[in-house]
Amino acid sequence: DQQVKQNSPSLSVQEGRISILNCDYTNSMFDYFLWYKKYPAEGPTFLISISSIKDKNEDGRFTVFLNKSAKHLSLHIVPSQPGDSAVYFCAASARGGSEKLVFGKGTKLTVNP
Amino acid sequence: KAGVTQTPRYLIKTRGQQVTLSCSPISGHRSVSWYQQTPGQGLQFLFEYFSETQRNKGNFPGRFSGRQFSNSRSEMNVSTLELGDSALYLCASSRWTSPRTDTQYFGPGTRLTVL
After folding, report:
1. CB proximity A112 to B under 8 Å
2. Which one in A14, A113, B8, B104 has a CA-CA gap of 20 to 30 Å to B30?
3. How many angstroms separate the Cα of A86 from the Cα of each of A12, A45, B5, B84?
4. Contacts of B86 (CB under 8 A, 6+ apart)
5. CB under 8 Å to B61, separation ≥6 — which residues?
6. CB-based contact (8 Å) between A59 and chain B?
7. How far is CA A53 from its chain centroid?
């Protein structure tokens, strides 16, 4: 049972435009969410996170939005750059217990020059 | 400072064999977590070690095991390999154990192919 879902395996956008990557979750105990970026032949690197007490977190060109009622979060990249081309993983952690990260399957973003 | 290193980077084994993968965390990091990445399942949590003790375990069969040494280096072992074990195995280290307060840094992974 996939508790964190990234329903779009791939996304292609033009350089300079906005990239929106989506993530849905089913476990209502999740209250901390993270995005990781992964280039080929490298491990994932942390990008941005958000706690459930917020509905938005911004870091430069990257903004994460959280809609708790819909159990949905999204990552916005503005403006998109060719160097942003990578696989993006959404991850979630539940309060209490192990707090281990549960990852989605990833979305491959391609930014075309 | 040096990042997380994993050895070997690539490995080819046959069904029924066993394999040991190694992970050296960032200096000063005491927590090591292991993940399996496959195209169909994404990243799946295997287990986490902190100060030589397994703190958490994912939903994998007992063929998957691990350990951590006093210098925080970690190994994972897969016995009686199956074709479905072919995957990228990622190791991540952090100073402490909570991903909410402490960023996990990933190594480049070990690509295991089972023939």
Report:
1. no
2. B8
3. 11, 11, 21, 25
4. B38, B112, B113, B114
5. none
6. no
7. 17
DSSP state, residue B26 = P
DSSP string, A93-107: EESSTT---EE---E
Paired with A45 in beta bridges are A37
Alpha-carbon Rg of chain B, whole angstroms? 13
Provide the 3-class DSSP secondary structure of residue A31: strand
Chain A closest-CA separation from residue B44 CA (Å): 7
What would the two tokens of residue B103 be?
């960023």
Question: What is the C-alpha separation between A99 and A104, in angstroms, rounded?
Answer: 16
pLDDT in tens, chain B (115 residues): 679 999 999 999 999 999 999 999 999 999 999 999 998 788 999 999 999 999 989 999 999 999 999 999 999 999 999 999 999 999 999 998 877 778 899 999 999 999 9
- Contact assessment for residue B104 and residue B26, using Cβ atoms and an 8 Å cutoff: no
Tell me if B42 and A99 make a contact (CB, 8 A cut-off): no
Distant-in-sequence, close-in-space partners of A1: CB < 8 Å, separation ≥ 6? A26
At A37, which amino acid appears? K
CA dist A31 and B78 (Å) reads: 33
